[in-house]
Amino acid sequence: MSTSSPQVPLLNPVVRALTRAHDSLTRLSFWGAMLGVVYLTVVTGWEVIGRYVLGTPASWTSDTAAVSFALVTFFAAPMLTWKAGHASMNAIVEALPTGSARWIRRFNMLLGAAACALVAWYAGNESLRLYNRGVMMIAATPIPKWWVMAALTYGLTSMALYFARHFITSFLHAEPTDSENS
Amino acid sequence: RSMTMLSSWEASYNAVPVFAEGFMEEVKERSGGELDIRMRGPETVPPFEQLQPVSSGMFDFLFTHGAYHLGETGMAFGMDAVEDNPEERRESGIYELIDEHYQTEHNLKLIGVFSAASGYHFLLREPIGDSGDLSGMSIRASATYHDMVQELNGAVVTLPASEIYSALDRGVVDGAAWPVFGAMDYSWYEVADYMTRPTFGVTNLSLFMNLDRWNALSEKDQELILGVAKDLEISGREHFETLWAEEDEAMQEAGLAITEFGPETASQVDSIFAAGVWKQVRERSGPLGAEFHERAVEAGLTAE
Amino acid sequence: MEWYILISAAFFLLLALFATGLPIFLSFLALNILGIYLLRGSFDGVMLIVNSMFNTGTNMSLAAIPLFILLGEILFRSNAVHILFNAVDGLIGNIRARLYAVSIVLSAVFGALSGSAMAVAAMMGASLLPEMRKRGYDRNLSIGTILAGSSLAPIIPPSVMAVVLGILSGVSISGLLVAGILPGLLLATAFFLYVVIRGWLNPSLAPVSQQAKLPWRERAMLFLRAVPFLLIIITILGMILAGVATPTEAAAMGCIVAVIICSIFAKLDLKALYEAVRSTAWITGMIMVIMVSSVSFSQVLNMSGVTFELVAWVTDLDISLVLMFIALMALPFVLCMFIDQIALMILLVPLYKPIVTALGFDPMWFWAIFLINMSVGGITPPFGYTLFALQGVARDVPIQAVYRSVLAFIAIFAFVIVLLALFPQIILFLPSLI
Ligand code: NA
Ligand code: NA
C-alpha cells in the first residue's frame, strides 16, 4: 500500500514530515479497523456459543461488539479518502475534457474538506461534552460514549485533512496517481 | 411560529394520544389557538438520542421515558421508583429538584411527569418455581431491569426488542421484562404463558421544554402550559387506570396466566426494583440525585 | 415553499452532485448539512447528523455487513471456489449448453456464500469466462449468464443489500434475508431454462463438449469434497430460519465455521486470512461511510414535513393499487440505470416506507420485490457495479457488448418479478416460518 508521491520542491521538510506522520497514523488506524473486524467476528460468535453451548449468556459481548463495529468504520475511512477509494459515479466527469474535469475534482475535494471538517468540529465538541459529563452508552456494560465519538471525530478530521491535501497537491502536479484496488 | 414536540414513540403507543397529543390539544384550546405544537416522532430522531436536540433548541418539547436518556442522567428515571400519587409527588418538592437538575445540566424545563397508573412485569414461558423468584431463568431485559433480574437470581440477556417474540418462541430466553403494556401489541401472549405478579415500579412519561424557549414565553403562557400539564397528570392517570384494567383483562383472556412470586419475594419486588433505580440515580446524577432519593424517602414516597 | 418543489430540488441537487463524481457519502453529507442549515438557520443542527452517524455506526444489525463480506472473502481467497466449481462441473452431465448451466448453478451456490454481486461477477468473470470462450461458447451469452447469475447474490442470503434495505425500511432483516431464497431459486431456474432453450434453438451458441463424461465414482468424490462447504450455508440459513440467532450472529458463526472448514479442506493460510480481513475492513469502510453519512437524510426529510405531504398526496391519488405498485417499482428500475443501488435505496426507501404503510401493501412482500428490483439495478446499463466488475476482469470485451448481453436476462427478471407480485406466497412462505 506504499505510494510514491512525487517529490515536490515546494513542500518544505516540516510539511513533508507532517504529511508522513498523518499517513502513518492512517496506516495504524487501518490496522485498528482490521482488529475491529476480527474482534467483532470472534466475540459475536462467542456470544452465540455462550448462549447455547455453555448456557451462560453474556451481555458484554454484543455491547463491545457494537463499539468495535463503529471503530471498523471510523478507523478505515481515512485510508479510503487517502487512496481515493470512496464509491462514486465517475462516468460523466471522465467523459469531460481534462481541464474542466480537473476543476470539478478540485471543487469536490474542497467540498469534502469543508463538509468533513464541519462535522468533525461538532463531533469533537460533543466528544468533550461526553467526556466531561461521563456519559455512558445505554447498555448493560458501562462503556463511555466518548470512545466512539472520539473515533468518529478522528475519522472525519483525518478525512477532511486528506481532502485538503488532495486539493493542494492537485495544483502541484498534474494528476494524483494514488489508487488502490479494493 | 408553531412549536415542535419530539416524541420517543409513534402515535400507536397508547401514552402518545393520552399525554402528548392530549397536552398539545389542551394547550392549543386554552390559548385560543395561539400556542400550536406539532409532533415529530422517533423517525426524526431515534428515541435514545432525543435529549440533546431538545437541549440545543432544535425542537421545543420532549416527550420521553427517563430510561431513554439514562446515559446522560438518571433523574427522570428515578420517578419510576416514586409512589404513584400525582398530588403528593408535587407537594414533596422532588419536582423542584428534578427541574433544577435538568435546567442547570441540560438546558431543559421540566413540564410534567405523567404516570401510566401501572408498572412493570415479567412475561415467562414457565411459572415461577419453588424458589419463588427467577432462579435458573434467562430473562431478556433492558438497562432498566438489570439490577432487578440479578437480584431475583435470573440471568440477564440483552436482545433488541424486535427479537423478543422469536426468542420467547424458541426458548432462547425464558422470559422478558417489560412495562405491563406490550404483550398484546406485540403478540407476545402467543409465545409466553405467564405474567408475574405483583407488578413493580411505576411507568412514567416525562415532558420537558427547551429552557430558552420556555424563558421566551410570556408569564401567562408559562402558567398555562404548567397548568395543562398539572391537570393532565391527574386526568391522564385516571384514563390510564381504565386502560390498564382493560389490558389486564385482555391479557388474561388471551391466555396469559398469573404466576405469583413466592411470599418472601413478592413483598420485596417493589423495593428491589426501587433499589436498582436509586442506584442508577445516585450513580448518574450526582449530589442532586442523592438529594432526590433522600427527599423521596423522607416523604414516604418510595419503597425503603 | 411547496413540498414538491423542495423534494424535486433536493433530488436534482443530489443527482447533480453524483454526476460531478463527488463520493456518494459526501453527496449525502453535503445535502444533509444544507437541508439542516435551511431548516434551522444555523449549523447547530449538524449535531443531528453527528448523532445519526454515532447510532448508525454502532447499529449491531448493520454489523452483519462486514461479517457477510468477510465470509465471501475467506471462501474466495482460499481455493474453496475451485472445489465448488469442480463439483458443479462434475455433477452437471453432458447436456447441450453445459457450461451455461454450470455457470448458473455455480452462481446460485456462490450467491448463497457471498453477500455481494460484484464479488461473484469478478470471480466468475476471471475463472469461468475464459474457459467458456476457449471452448467456443458464445461470448455474449456467456457474459449474460454470468452477470445474471451474479445478481442472485444480493437476493439469496447472505446479502449486504438485504441488511441495508432492512435497516432503511424497518422490516425484519431475518425475514428479508430468507424471503429471497425461493425467488432466487426461481430466477436461477428461469435462467437455466432460457439458456437450454437458446442452445437447443441455435446449436452454434454452444459447442458439444467432448470430455464431460466422468465416471460416477469420480463425480461422487467431487461432490463429497464440496460437502463441507455446504455446511457453511447450512449454518447461516439454519440459524436464521430456526430463529435462534440474529443475522449478525449467524454471519459471525458462518465466518468461524468457514475459517475452520477452509483451513482443513481448502488452502486457507494466515496470509489469505490477513488479506481477507484487510479487504473486509476496506469494503466495510466504503459501505458504512455511506450509511453513516446518509441515514440522517430521512430525518431531514421528516423535519421538513416533505414526507408527510408526499404521503398525503399519494394516498389522495385516484389510481388503482396495481398501477401504484407498478409505478413504485418502475421508478427505481429506471433510476437504477444511472444511480448506485445503495444510494438509490437511501434516497427512495424513506419516501416509500410511509407510502407502503398507507397503501396497505404487505411490507415483507413489497420490500422483497424491491430488493430483487434493486439487484437487477447492478446489471442494467449504462451504470451498474456488477457490469463494471465483470468488465474489470474481462478487459478485451467492449462495454457495449456487455450491455447487450444482459438485456434478455433483464427481461427474465422482469417476468419473474411479475410472477412474484401475483403469487406473494413464493416470497412470504419462508419468512412466515421464522
Ligand atoms: Na448472497
Ligand atoms: Na444499473
**Most extensive interface, residues per chain?**
A-C, 57 and 59 residues
Question: Which shape of chain B, going by the Cα principal axes?
Answer: globular
Number of domains of chain A: 1
Number of strands of chain A: 0
In which range does the helix fraction of chain A lie? over 70%
- Elements of chain A, N to C (H/E): HHHHH
Subunit structure (chain A): The complex comprises the extracytoplasmic solute receptor protein and the two transmembrane proteins.
Subcellular location (chain A): Cell inner membrane
Pfam families (chain A): DctQ
Protein name (chain A): TRAP transporter small permease protein
Explain briefly what this protein structure is.
The complex is a heterotrimer of chains A (182), B (304) and C (434). In chain A, 73% of the residues lie in helices and 0% in strands. Chain A is mainly alpha-helical and 182 residues long.
Tell me what you see in this structure.
The complex is a heterotrimer of chains A (182), B (304) and C (434). By secondary structure, chain A is mostly helical. Chain A has one domain (11-181). Helix content of chain A is 73%, strand content 0%. The termini of chain A are close together. Chain B is α/β, with parallel strands linked by helices. In chain B, helix 5 (146-151) links the parallel strand 6 and strand 7 (155-157). Chain B starts with a strand and ends in a 6-residue tail after the last helix. In chain B, helix 1 (15-30) packs antiparallel against helix 8 (219-253) and helix 4 crosses helix 10 (269-298). The mean pLDDT of chain B is 92. Chain B has helices at 15-30, 51-55, 86-91, 94-106, 146-151, 164-170, 211-216, 219-253, 263-266, 269-298, and strands spanning 3-7, 37-40, 61-64, 108-115, 120-124, 138-140, 155-157, 175-179, 194-197, 204-210, 257-260. Chain C has 434 residues and is mainly α. Chain C has helices spanning 3-19, 24-40, 46-57, 64-77, 80-91, 98-111, 117-134, 139-150, 160-169, 173-179, 181-201, 216-242, 247-265, 270-294, 296-304, 306-316, 321-335, 341-359, 363-377, 385-393, 399-422, 425-433. In chain C, helix 2 (24-40) packs parallel to helix 14 (270-294) and helix 4 packs parallel to helix 13 (247-265). The longest helix of chain C is centred in the middle third of the chain and has 27 residues, at 216-242. Chains in contact: A-B, A-C, B-C. Bound molecules: sodium ion (2 copies). One sodium ion binds at residues 336-337, 377, 380, 383-384 of chain C.
